[in-house]
Fold this sequence. Notes:
Shape: globular
Distance between the termini: 15 Å
Number of helices: 9
Largest sheet: 8 strands, mixed
Number of strands: 17
Structural class: alpha/beta
Amino acid sequence: MMKAILLTGKPESRSDITKFLSVSDSVPKPSIKPNEVLVRVKASAMNIEDIMIGVGRMLVSLTATKEAPVVLGQEFSGVVEEVGSNVKELKQGDKVFGHKFGMKIRFGSWAEFVAVNEKVLVKMGDKYSFAEAAALPMSALVAYGAATATGLMGNPLLENIPHKTRKQEDVIAVKDVDNEALIMDTKIDKNILKDTKVALVGASSTIGLMALDMLASRGVKVVGVSSSSSAAPVLANGAVAVLDRHVDGGLGRKGDMELDIVIDCIGGQEIEDSARKALGSRGHFITVVGPGEDVFAEGMVGVSGHLGHAASLAGRAFKSMFSNTKYTLATMPLSGGVKILQDLINENLKSVIDSEVDMFNEDSVHKAVEKVNNHKNKGRLVFVA
């Protein structure tokens, strides 16, 4: 037997999910197939998608009951406990992290142990803590998809990358005297804005900070759009400046910057419209969320919601063929994820963590879920065992 966080019913809404989440110490320990590995989980990240799966908003969801509960969780790190007879690359005691895709999965990673195919695991090395590694897989791969869509990821890595060791406490952020939306670090020359061609909306989100890190590490000058209170972490992750989203949406105060690319990590029609205006009806609009009136794809409920979302995407992609503004939905790569993650940790991609929470403290779990539900987390919230 093992400990795990159990979902024991189908919530009517996201806000109801904590009524059906409980910690149990009598969950059957997973058995492994010949090509699988049993990992003793040290940390498991939580994101809004986990909650949406639990509520049944995703097409991949299983319905949980008291008789047949579900263990949520997709991203994790830990130590190899046992290997199947056909496993070739891993051995007992290896430190690993990975992503167990939540398609019709009854036993995810919010547990003491998780069984996965060896092909989804990445060896951690010593650069990251267990919590930092668990926070990487999904966000890093989506961020990679957005950064790759810019066409700029082929730029060589800089030999000297100051922001890799920079913390937000090192940033001295000040508002510009001529533009109340513009926030810069005192160490950065304002003339750099003349060469800034990329804007990133939602730059303080987990995906935004990672995409920013990837691009800045290749010498791409990026202006972030976020709240002024989040300016320091955005600047610390490599942005040349921040535009306060509370002042004309941020992009409305871009000044003389001639943007070629806008990356959207928030979603919603208002952001898409302001991005197109900032691009001057040309350039490239990249979103990790997609079209619609709701931010964070909140409108994607059930089959009809997903079909409507897909239809909107198809329509925009078709229209972009006859427009000067290209439209791209950036997603996780369909293949090669392990290799991509290995490359990203080799270049010291900065993990983005909000906080660490005791996985088997029920009250703490409920508070953590509510925090993510209300979009109050700044970075990945990570359960630790």
